[in-house]
Amino acid sequence: MILLRLLLVDDHALFREGLVNLFRYENDFTVVGEAEDADTALDKARELLPDLVLMDIDLPGADGVAATRRIKAELPHVSVVMLTVHDDTEKLMEAVKAGAEGYLVKNIRSAELLEQLRGVKRGEAAISRRMAARILEEFRRPEELPEPEGDLTQRELEVLELVADRLSNKEIAAQLFLSEHTVKNHLKNILSKLHLRSRRQAAAYGVARGWVRPHDGD
């Protein structure tokens, strides 16, 4: 089991304490440090070299986006995930452009937060389907989305829906009564038809096209 070492950055001590208590009961997470402002966050990141920084946006002085930009400039191997009250596209895009690997809103359920952060360990972005769709829409207006090379089959749409639900190939195979090899082939065909490179891009494209509906909890 890979242990994910966390640095928590938030100016509210009570919120940090809540996160510490949450991670205390998880075997694959450990909190190595805390910070309440951008300067301290950078100092702690340099000193502790965490795997992931869980960063609030609203910090005293320089905000979390500026702190993220500084951390990524000096420590590009350290992942940063924003955890914020702001559910708006402008803040989301600022965080992405600063180098954040994820953007989560503080009303997220604890189980979903843990799963999103575990996804970061697997190289995935920690972001909801709705937020992923906003990123895609920011760079490509819906009317400018490239047309698929061919229509997705019903089975491919079913696979895409489950990909958007963050299911693994094994879980998709079990739910659709397919082999993992068949699921991989469907994913390969989906990415080829949509001219995309990743599962996350495909899920965001599906939401933007209206093929996949964001869940209320996203």
Description:
- With 218 residues, the protein is an alpha/beta fold.
- It folds into two domains: 124 residues, Rossmann fold; 64 residues, Orthogonal Bundle (Arc Repressor Mutant, subunit A), CATH 1.10.10.
- It is built from ten helices and six strands.
- The chain has a six-stranded parallel beta sheet, with helices on both faces.
- Strand 3, helix 3 and strand 4 form a beta-alpha-beta unit.
- Helix 2 packs parallel to helix 3, helix 6 packs across helix 10 and helix 8 packs across helix 9.
- The longest helix is centred in the last third of the chain and has 15 residues.
- It starts with a strand and ends in a 9-residue tail after the last helix.
CATH topology name of the largest domain, in short, is Rossmann fold
Assign the structural class, choosing from mainly alpha, mainly beta, alpha/beta, alpha+beta, or little secondary structure. alpha/beta
List how many beta strands DSSP finds.
Answer: 6
Query: What is the 3D shape?
Result: globular
CATH H-level name of the largest domain... which superfamily? Answer: Response regulator
Provide the helix percentage. 40-55%
CATH 2nd-level architecture of the largest domain = 3-Layer(aba) Sandwich
Low-pLDDT stretches are none
Q: What is the mean predicted local confidence, pLDDT?
A: 87
Would you state the CATH class of the largest domain?
Alpha Beta
What oligomeric state is this?
A: single chain
Question: What key phrases describe this protein's structure?
Answer:
alpha/beta, Rossmann fold, Arc Repressor Mutant, subunit A, six-stranded parallel sheet, 6 strands, globular
